[in-house]
Amino acid sequence: MGVEQKILGSSRIGMSATPGRHASGSHMLQNIDWVTILLYFLLVGLGWMNIYAAVYSPDNVVNIMSFDINSGKQLVWIAASLILIIVLLVVDYKVYEHLAYPIYGAIILLLLVTLAVAKPIAGSRSWLDLGGGIRLQPAELAKFATALAASKFLSTVNLRQQNFADQMKLAAITLLPPAIIILQNETGSALVFAAFILAYFREGISPLILIIGGSVAAVFILTLLVPKLYLILAITVLLALATWLDYRLLRRYKTMMALWVLVVGMIFSVDFFVNNVLQPHQQNRIKALINPEADPLGFGWNVTQSKIAIGSGGFWGKGFLEGTQTKFDFVPEQSTDFIFCTIGEEQGWVGSTVLIGLFMFLMIRVVMVAERQKSVFGRAYGYCVASIIFFHFLVNVGMTIGLAPVVGIPLPFFSYGGSSLWSFTILLFILIAIDANRSQDLAR
Fold this sequence. Notes:
Elements: H1 2-31, H2 34-55, H3 70-90, H4 94-98, H5 100-117, E1 128-131, E2 134-136, H6 138-154, H7 164-183, H8 187-191, H9 196-202, H10 207-225, H11 228-245, H12 253-277, H13 280-290, H14 301-312, H15 324-327, H16 339-371, H17 376-400, H18 418-436
Antiparallel strand pairs: 1-2
């Protein structure tokens, strides 16, 4: 009887295990965030149509699906992304956490290989030629790999304890990829990694780092816009006012004096940095941001024509495929970095507002998904995704309207390019896969 009971017991366990596995699959389908997926396909679809609008010529009409133009090529990348999505959702979600470091290491190796063997394109050694006219930019893939590795690390430490060693390790994980990317002369892609600080802030890193970073950026920009004497006077008044409002700062007068000297030193070093460290094309980007009208036919051309295209759309826009600035190629890189101009010109203020609203909805949705995760890894990864999308969106739209330097950052899911589309697809659907299985995670 004892043997029979053991056999019957083991058979019951086996019978119950199989339905459990099937239930897990159906449970995942029920938990998938279809709203986020809908937003993804909506943005990709709109992007595809606007890529066609950007290259459309009324004198030589080509079918939107023709492989001779960017919209047809992008369709291939979109189809490949569908296969990629299925793979990302079918793979066991735990793989993303368990293999976070190996994936990160593989991408670092790929970046180094690219630096060594890539042929210069427009001064940048960031593209791998895969043959058949297909090129891959590993710098785009480094974003999701860094997000995975950083999230894995954050799941093993507590940043709120302000452990300096842990912070240095996290900084190394974050800064290694952009360091290699800068060596590839791809500064715009490297800047994106600054977005990770927003995710780290959510996980408990000191807000002082954000304050210092923001202050340094503000002083740098103001030094380019305001005469140095006025800026130094303003800094002096602000420090004096802060001391007057909080008399306890008088006890730290040495610290206040050191801060004043540091800021003044930075103000006088900005010119040296711009003129002696930055390359000529990078200097022109700064000049175009400050005053594009100074050289409207030279370094100010892109920004000036971009603003003209967006402004000419008015309230309702000129209509789909009716943009004159687009048709006559006044704006360079119209289907990639300046794709937002096509929306502004052809769909006007209304279309631009709708697009911005869709991106805002997506970013809010990603944050909501991140907050409902039951693991630190899932939550941290979700915030990394939201931060990267936010940075790309903010800088891309900002540079088309003259509020950010032209640094070659694509608009997520919208700009032409397979590497960019794959990168954002992987970023988003790894999060969707993790979220669909969140009930199986234990809070850490």
